[in-house]
């Protein structure tokens, strides 16, 4: 396929990329961004996403979404939108599949707990950890640590970054200091993530019984498409009705994002990726759709994420993370050898480095592995 003929002038192109940290021979049968996608799919961290949760802890049910299924759904939504906007689908897919690689076990509860544990050692943030995974922690290649991804892929993975952290990241953190935008592909992957998790959390919430359709009917966005489904299919109920409603919600968000973004891009008169970086964010929803999405997000936060049954599990999850961290910091010899500091290092620098290694170890755990490690450390009958 002739990518130059298909892509818009402001789309990211492999031949115009800022490249890789370590030079490599270009691939012969795929693009550079396809190579990135393939490396991500074959990474250890990607496989672990199968047993890391979104909202429900892994053992609570086989039908709830995991970080892996979520990442695949984000990639599907993002590629569809990218094709309509003539953006680079391979880059969008690579970013989408990699965006959660650094997430802790137990979802956001795990991240909050690990960040609290790391407050004296630089904190913990899953976007930074995802970048750390692809830059340093994966061990697949003889010539370098990490996956040696293209600059644009790494940039898209790093959605948020504080000013102090950005100052330590070199070129990849520069846009946060200069107040510039990433590629349109990175902007798109970010909003595809939002579309996926909001709507699919509705699905999981209903499947779990923690949400009811009666509650959701109070939300204008849901009620509109629920009514449309009932008008088209009188008497429809159960899972079929829920699926028909949610897919219409996703479609509405996707169509709005495409149309609004197309208009903003046209008004900006973009001619290059550099022009994208100097513009305000251009991949966005209309004001009306943004308000509707925000209402749904508030509803999920109040009624699902803070549901007392979810709170019970997240309370346990925080305790598991906290107790693992404290045990490993007090006795680093409990860690696997690769995560122990060398005996020749001393002082605060050693403590800081050891804390980061403990965070790397815990963040890399799946839900069930974290629970098993906790039992091994704190139950006398586990080995």
Q: What is the strand tally?
A: 0
Q: What is the H level of CATH, i.e. the homologous superfamily of the largest domain?
A: Hypothetical protein af1432
Q: Compute the separation of the termini in Å.
A: 55 Å
- The sequence of SSEs as H and E is HHHHHHHHHHHHHHHHHHH
Low-confidence region ranges: none
Number of domains: 2
Shape: globular
Write the CATH architecture name of the largest domain: Orthogonal Bundle
Class of the largest domain, according to the CATH hierarchy?
A: Mainly Alpha
- The percentage helix is 55-70%
Class computed from helices, strands and strand pairing: mainly alpha
Largest sheet: none
Q: Radius of gyration over alpha carbons?
A: 22 Å
Write up this protein.
The protein is an all-alpha fold. The chain folds into two domains: 279 residues, Hypothetical protein af1432 (Orthogonal Bundle), CATH 1.10.3210; 65 residues, no CATH class. 62% of the residues lie in helices and 0% in strands. It contains 19 helices and no strands. Helix 17 crosses helix 19. It starts with a helix and ends in a 5-residue tail after the last helix.
Question: Which helices and strands occur, and which strands form pairs?
Answer:
Blueprint: H1 3-6, H2 32-41, H3 44-48, H4 67-85, H5 89-98, H6 107-117, H7 126-137, H8 151-157, H9 163-167, H10 174-178, H11 184-208, H12 213-216, H13 220-232, H14 238-268, H15 273-278, H16 287-305, H17 308-330, H18 347-363, H19 367-378
Key features of this structure:
Hypothetical protein af1432; 383 residues; globular; 2 domains; 19 helices; mainly alpha
């Amino acid at each position: 396929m002739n990518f130059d003929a298909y892509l818009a002038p402001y789309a990211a192109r492999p031949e115009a990329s800022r490249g890789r940290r370590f030079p490599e021979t270009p691939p012969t049968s795929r693009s550079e961004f396809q190579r990135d996608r393939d490396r991500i799919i074959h990474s250890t961290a990607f496989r672990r996403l199968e047993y890391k949760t979104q909202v429900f802890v892994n053992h609570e049910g086989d039908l709830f979404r995991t970080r892996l299924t979520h990442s695949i759904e984000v990639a599907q939504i993002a590629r569809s939108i990218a094709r309509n906007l003539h953006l680079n689908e391979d880059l969008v897919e690579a970013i989408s599949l990699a965006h959660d690689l650094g997430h802790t076990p137990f979802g956001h509860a795990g991240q909050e707990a690990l960040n609290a544990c790391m407050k004296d050692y630089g904190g913990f943030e899953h976007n930074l950890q995802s970048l750390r995974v692809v830059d340093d922690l994966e061990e697949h290649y003889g010539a370098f640590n990490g996956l040696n991804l293209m600059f644009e892929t790494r940039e898209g993975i790093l959605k948020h970054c504080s000013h102090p952290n950005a100052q330590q990241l070199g070129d990849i953190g520069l846009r946060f200091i200069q107040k510039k935008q990433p590629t349109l592909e990175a902007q798109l992957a970010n909003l595809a993530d939002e579309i996926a998790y909001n709507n699919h959390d509705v699905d999981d919430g209903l499947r779990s019984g923690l949400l009811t359709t009666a509650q959701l009917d109070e939300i204008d966005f849901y009620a509109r498409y629920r009514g449309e489904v009932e008008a088209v299919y009188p008497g429809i109920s159960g899972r079929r009705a829920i699926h028909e409603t949610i897919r219409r919600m996703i479609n509405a968000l996707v169509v709005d994002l495409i149309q609004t973004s197309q208009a903003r891009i046209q008004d900006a008169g973009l001619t290059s990726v550099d022009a994208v970086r100097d513009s305000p964010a251009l991949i966005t929803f209309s004001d009306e759709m943004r308000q509707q999405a925000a209402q749904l997000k508030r509803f999920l936060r109040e009624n699902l994420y803070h549901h007392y049954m979810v709170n019970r599990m997240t309370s346990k999850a925080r305790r598991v993370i906290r107790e693992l961290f404290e045990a490993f910091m007090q006795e680093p010899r409990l860690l696997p050898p690769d995560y122990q500091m060398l005996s020749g290092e001393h002082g605060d620098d050693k403590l800081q480095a050891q804390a980061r290694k403990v965070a790397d170890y815990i963040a890399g755990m799946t839900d069930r592995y974290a629970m098993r490690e906790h039992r091994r450390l704190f139950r006398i009958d586990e080995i």
